[in-house]
Amino acid sequence: MRSLALVLMVVGFTSMPGKASVRPMLQDTVFTTFSGTVINDETRDPIVFVNVYLIGSSLGTVTNAEGEFILKVPLSEMNGKVRFSYLGYQNVDIALATLNPEDNIIRLRPTAVNLEEVTIRTEDPVQLIRIAQNNVRRNYATNPQRLVGFYRETVKENRNYVVVAEAVLDVFKASYGNDFQLDRVSIFRGRKSGEVKKMDTINFKLQGGPKTSFLLDLVKNPGGILAEDYIEYYDFWFAGFEIIDDRNNYVIGFDQRNDVDMSLYKGKIYIDAKNMAFSRFEFELSDKEIETAASELVRKKPMDLKIEVISGNYLVNYRMVNNTWYINHVRSDLVFETQWKKKRHNATYVTTLEMAVTDRDSMNVEKSRYRSQVRTNDILADDVSYYEDEDFWGDYNYIKPDESIESVIRRLSRKLRWETLDEIDE
Question: Pick from 252, 316, 235, 249: which is nearest to 277 by CA?
Fold first, then answer.
C-alpha cells in the first residue's frame, strides 16, 4: 500500500435528491455548554487531542483536528474548574464561572521537562527505531489476546453532527511475533444516534472504522511510516525527551522528504528509554503533498464534486502492564472541504474515530469466524442496527458525541469486559 490512508480511511460520497429535512435536536435543560479552541501560546497553532476535563469528575472531552472542543457541564458542577492538559505543555486550570459559552481561546505553553539521567544509546534516530523494532518480540505479547474495545465514530457537516455511531468490539489480537497472523475485529453490540442533523446534498460515509482502529497499530502494521520500503522516504531527527506515565521516552520527529511525490506523514515517535518499546505515535498528513491525499482517501464521488483534504491527525497509544506493552487507545481525525458548483453546495466535513481497549485476556483465545469480521469496506453507520440491544446499554441510553470516550467507558465499565460478553452471549 502506498500509505496508511489508502486502506485506513475511505470516504464515500453519493448525491442525494433535493434537500433533506432537519430533525429537531433534543435540547439539554440541565447542562451548560462551553466551546472554544486550544492553541500553542507561542505559535498560535491549534493543538490536537488536548484533554479537556472537569477536575474531580469523569466529565471530559478532547480537542478535534482544528483544536476545537465542546464541553457539556451539569448545572450542579458549575462551581468547578476545567483542566486543559497535553503532553509537553503546562496544564491550564480555569474556573467555569470565568469561561464564555463559546469562542474561548485557551493558550498552552510548552514546558521543559526535567528528566532523570538517561543513557543516550545513539544519536542516530533511525538506529533508535531499529532497536525498538528488534525488541518487538521482547516487549509485546507474542501470544494472541482477546480484547474488548469501545469504539465511536462521528461525522460533522460544518458544525453539525450528521453521524454518531458506537460499538463494543470483540477482537482477536494477533501475536506480535507472527507477521502472518492478522487481527480479527467483530462487533458485539452497536448503535447510532437518531438525534443528528440530516445530511444535506452529500451522503458522506466512513468505511471500515472498527477495522481501521487496529490497522493503526503501527507496531503490528508498520504501514506507510515504519515499513522497510517507506523509511527511506522520510527525514528523521532526534527531538529530545518526554515523560509519559512517569517513564522517560526518546522523541523522534519525522517528515516526508521534499523529493517524495506521494502523500505521506509527519509527526513524532515515542520510544520508552528503559526497554526500548514504542509507547506512542502522533502523526498527521504532511503538508508537502497533502493536495494529492484526496485521491487515496475518497473511494467514490460525482465527477464534478471537488474535494480537498485539509488535515489528517492520528494518535496511537500503548500501555505497559507487567512489563508487556499493549495497544490501548487510538484516535483519528480527518478534515475535508467540498465544493459542488452544480448543487451550489460548499461544506466542511470532519470524521473522527476513536477506540479504547477496556479488557484483555490471553486464556482460551479463539479466532472469530471470517464471515463475522468487520472488513475495511464495511460501513458501521449503515449496518449498526443489526447489533442494537437496548437492554445492553442500560442507563447509558443516548449518545453524547462531545462526551469523552473515557467517560463512556466508566459508565459501561462492568459490561466492557470479556467475561460479561460471554455471559450475555450465553
Answer: 249
Q: Which of 224, 181, 172, 169 is nearest to 353 (CA)?
A: 169
Q: Is 221 exposed, middle or buried (0-12, 13-18, 19+ CB in 10 A)?
A: buried
Query: How do residues 158-188 score in pLDDT, each as one tens digit?
Result: 988 888 899 889 999 999 998 888 999 999 8
What grid cell was written down for 65?
483536528
φ/ψ of residue 293, rounded to 5: -65, -30
CA neighbor of 46 nearest in space, from 265, 278, 310 = 310
- In sequence order, what are the residues at sequence separation of 6 or more whose Cβ sits closer than 8 angstroms to the Cβ of residue 402? 61, 70, 71, 72
Longest dimension (CA), the chain: 65
Q: How big is the chain by its Cα radius of gyration, in Å?
A: 21
Confidence of residue 2 (pLDDT cuts 50, 70, 90): very low
Mean local confidence (pLDDT), 64-87: 85
**Residues 170, 186 contacting (CB under 8 angstroms):** yes
Q: How many CB atoms lie within 10 A of CB 342?
A: 10
The pLDDT score that the predictor gives to residue 226 is 93
Location of C-alpha cell 485539509: 310
Q: Is the pLDDT of residue 370 over 70?
A: no
Total count of residues recorded for the chain: 426
8-state DSSP, 209: H
* pLDDT for residue 143: 92
Q: Residues 356, 347, 106, CA angle at the centre, nearest 5°?
A: 55
Mean pLDDT score, 1-7: 39
Show the CA angle centred on residue 386, arms to residues 380 and 390, nearest 5°.
105
List of domains in the chain? 4-17+121-425 (no CATH), 31-108 (2.60.40.1120)
Answer whether 62's CB lies under 8 Å from 404's CB.
yes
Q: Which residue has the higher pLDDT, 336 or 117?
A: 336
pTM of the entire structure? 0.81
